[in-house]
């Protein structure tokens, strides 16, 4: 499973990029809205130039024509851009057109395996099932990753599964074990994922022992 960061914050992206395990970036309108004094398009280009990996930028239109137009403009910004499109009827129409033009898409806000199948068949490069938001309503989100993974394997569908709406470290492990190709993870959870209390205790003990050595 590859690791993406789910962020539009350039400082966070820069920091995690140095860690060597980041294979892409996803943004969404809520994340972009937190960023001040920079346009959406400029920020996407800035991220693309920094990471040189797939970077998802989301359309705002609700109509297919508008999504297609936005998608084409996003695609022209940089060759690493993936056009993120919500899982709606209009969204699928837009995915189908953009796919025929060779533009990569990430169908977002996927909450059922059937939605994932339709998005894949429409030509989506990626689908993003939101596991945390399912957990929030009392449905086990990770089960959706398993279902989509089984379905895509069974039918030899090449669309990649991005486990999204990751809320805690356990989600990262479960996404990998459940067949996600990618997990897109918020900065704070990436930071927590690196830690373990026994690692800290082990370092303390090694250093304490080191201090007792005879010169
Ligand atoms: C994925 O691409 C989305 O940006 C993201 O994972 C949404 O997560 P949230 O449910 O924490 O907002």
TrEMBL record:
Gene3D superfamilies xrefs: Aldolase class I
Keyword vocabulary terms for this entry: Cytoplasm, Pentose shunt, Schiff base, Transferase
Active site: 84 (schiff-base intermediate with substrate)
CDD domains xrefs: Transaldolase_FSA (cd00956)
Pathway: Carbohydrate degradation; pentose phosphate pathway; D-glyceraldehyde 3-phosphate and beta-D-fructose 6-phosphate from D-ribose 5-phosphate and D-xylulose 5-phosphate (non-oxidative stage): step 2/3
PANTHER family in the record: TRANSALDOLASE
Protein family: Belongs to the transaldolase family. Type 3B subfamily.
Name listed for the protein in its UniProt record: Probable transaldolase
């Amino acid at each position: 499973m590859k690791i993406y960061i789910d962020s539009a914050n350039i400082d966070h992206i820069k920091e995690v990029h140095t860690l060597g395990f980041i294979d892409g970036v996803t943004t969404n309108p809520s994340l972009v809205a937190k960023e001040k004094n920079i346009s959406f398009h400029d920020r996407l280009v800035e991220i693309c130039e920094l990471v040189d990996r797939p970077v998802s930028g989301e359309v705002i239109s609700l109509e297919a024509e508008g999504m297609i137009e936005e998608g084409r403009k996003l695609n022209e910004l940089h060759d690493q851009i993936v056009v993120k499109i919500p899982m709606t009827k209009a969204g699928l129409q837009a995915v189908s057109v953009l796919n025929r033009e060779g533009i990569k898409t990430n169908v977002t806000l996927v909450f059922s395996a059937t939605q994932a199948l339709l998005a894949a068949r429409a030509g989506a490069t990626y689908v993003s099932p939101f596991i945390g938001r399912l957990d929030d309503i009392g449905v086990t989100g990770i089960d959706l990753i398993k279902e989509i993974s089984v379905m895509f394997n069974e039918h030899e569908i090449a669309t990649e599964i991005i486990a999204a709406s990751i809320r805690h470290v356990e989600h990262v492990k479960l996404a990998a074990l459940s067949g996600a190709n990618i997990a897109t993870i918020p900065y704070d959870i990436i930071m927590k994922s690196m830690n373990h209390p026994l690692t800290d205790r082990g370092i303390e003990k090694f250093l304490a022992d080191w201090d007792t050595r005879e010169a």
